[in-house]
Amino acid sequence: MASPDRNQPGEERHEEDHFPIIGIAGPIASGKETVAQILKDNFGIARFVISDNLKRLAAAQGIKPPYSRDLLRDISLKLTDQSGPGANIQLTHEIIQTQRALIKMQGATIDGIRHKGEAEELKAIPASLLIAVTAPQQLRYERALHREQEEDETFYDRFIKRDNIELAEIEPIFELADVVINNTGTPEDLERQVIEFFIEKTSVF
Fold it and tell me: Which is more confident, 85 or 17?
């Protein structure tokens, strides 16, 4: 019996080959959530966030919110140690498949890809795309500061330290990305770039 994941000559393409899974990677405050929202608003692409899965795992361990970035990072490392470098993508993809049976969606984004192993796992999924979004560190710091509820004089040092650690993990992903968007312009510029990329790439699915 032929595998359902690989079509034989003359067969119709598997349904999965037409359902886009778009991974989104980028450093802090680069615009990942905005990219996902653009895809949702314009194409009906549902958003799934890796950190949401990690929060559910934390809750299952009896840990109560709020969940810090460091805590979620530790849970993610334990998960990948146990199940391999692509574990976060595998878990999110399973959730997407379950939700597809319940909710009509035209595709899905996986927001928060942070490691090269996750990017490689994503690229193995049929009809997958990887968007990397970035911006200069100072601009991202200003965006992150704007999101803070209260001004904190230690925020800059904490941001730079955390950002440099995460950048070292994320930058290798950019080599695997189908597009790298430098998000330094207006919201309209970002929306145009995302829409043009998505239409061009999904036209071949």
Answer: 85
Taking the C-alpha atoms of residue 4 and residue 46, their distance in angstroms, rounded to an integer, is 25
| pLDDT at residue 143, rounded to an integer | 95
Question: Over the chain, what is the mean pLDDT?
Answer: 91
Task: Return the pLDDT at 22.
Answer: 98
Q: Is the pLDDT of residue 4 over 50?
A: no
> What residues contact residue 122 under an 8 Å CB cut-off, 6+ apart?
21, 23, 86, 89, 110, 113, 128, 130
Order of all β-strands in the sheet with 21-25: 46-49, 108-113, 21-25, 128-134, 179-182
pTM for the whole thing? 0.89
Tokens 């790439």 belong to 201
pLDDT at position 147, please? 86
- Three-class HEC string of the chain: CCCCCCCCCCCCCCHHHHCCEEEEECCCCCCHHHHHHHHHHHHCCEEEEHHHHHHHHHHHCCCCCCCCHHHHHHHHHHHHHHHCCCHHHHHHHHHHHHHHCCCCCCCEEEEEECCHHHHHHHHCCCCEEEEEEECCHHHHHHHHHHHCCCCCCCHHHHHHHHHHHHHHHHHHHHHHCCEEEECCCCHHHHHHHHHHHHHHHHCCC
Q: Which of 38, 6, 7, 8 is nearest to 22 (CA)?
A: 38
Position 17 confidence tier, pLDDT thresholds 50, 70, 90: low
